[in-house]
């Protein structure tokens, strides 16, 4: 199991709140320093679970509320009052897309580093939107490689990386595709995923 998957849980006296220390050896800030993120998990009786953490500087918090009915709210605290929050309701596909957007930069940076020495090879992120003609269809239906000479090397779904998807892989709205190819091929790939 990778280092980032380990969580140390400490329960407080009333067992309503859980502090989770997440040490992510692969996550680095802009200066290259690895960090520790303390995620506070609070049970909200009759509502669901709130999971949040302080952002840099400690004056604001960001997180989610997972409601018992399945709805998810992105929450951001007010700068002057960390207990008061703005809440943004997210559909399942919006939550998955947001998770993908937040997780994709590390994967993209790694792929760019690996392809840096090859002139003309680019890496791009392409999102499967709700209205994409390929949402709910297999990757093979795109004929991406033969039409654009680009390769879909990974897919981010719900924050998880699916490497080297095969032609039978079923796309879902909110999937973030990591595509490698020429600049022209990547433009054609984006058009295919939006227009068919």
TrEMBL record:
GO biological process, one term: potassium ion transport
Pfam family, any one: TrkA_C
Domain RCK C-terminal: 111-195
InterPro entries tied to this protein: AAE_transporter (IPR050144), KhtT (IPR026278), KhtT-like_N (IPR058776), RCK_C (IPR006037), RCK_C_sf (IPR036721)
Highest taxon of the lineage: Bacteria
Molecular function as annotated in GO: monoatomic cation transmembrane transporter activity
Protein name listed in UniProt: Potassium transporter TrkA
């Amino acid at each position: 199991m990778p280092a980032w998957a380990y969580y140390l849980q400490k329960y407080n006296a009333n067992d309503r709140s859980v502090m989770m220390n997440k040490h992510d050896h692969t996550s680095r800030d802009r200066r290259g320093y690895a960090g520790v993120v303390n995620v506070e998990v609070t049970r909200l009786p009759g509502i669901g679970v709130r999971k949040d953490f302080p952002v840099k500087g400690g004056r604001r918090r960001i997180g989610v509320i997972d409601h018992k009915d399945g709805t998810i709210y992105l929450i951001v605290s007010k700068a002057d009052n960390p207990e008061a929050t703005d809440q943004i309701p997210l559909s399942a596909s919006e939550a998955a897309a947001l998770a993908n957007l937040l997780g994709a930069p590390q994967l993209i940076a790694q792929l760019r580093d690996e392809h840096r020495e090859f002139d003309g090879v680019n890496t791009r992120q392409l999102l499967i939107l709700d209205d994409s003609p390929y949402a709910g269809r297999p990757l093979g239906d795109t004929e991406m490689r033969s039409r654009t000479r680009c390769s879909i090397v990974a897919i981010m779904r719900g924050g998880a990386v699916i490497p080297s998807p095969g032609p039978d892989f079923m796309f879902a709205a909110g999937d973030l595709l990591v595509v490698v190819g020429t600049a022209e091929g990547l433009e054609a790939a984006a058009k295919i995923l939006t227009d068919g």
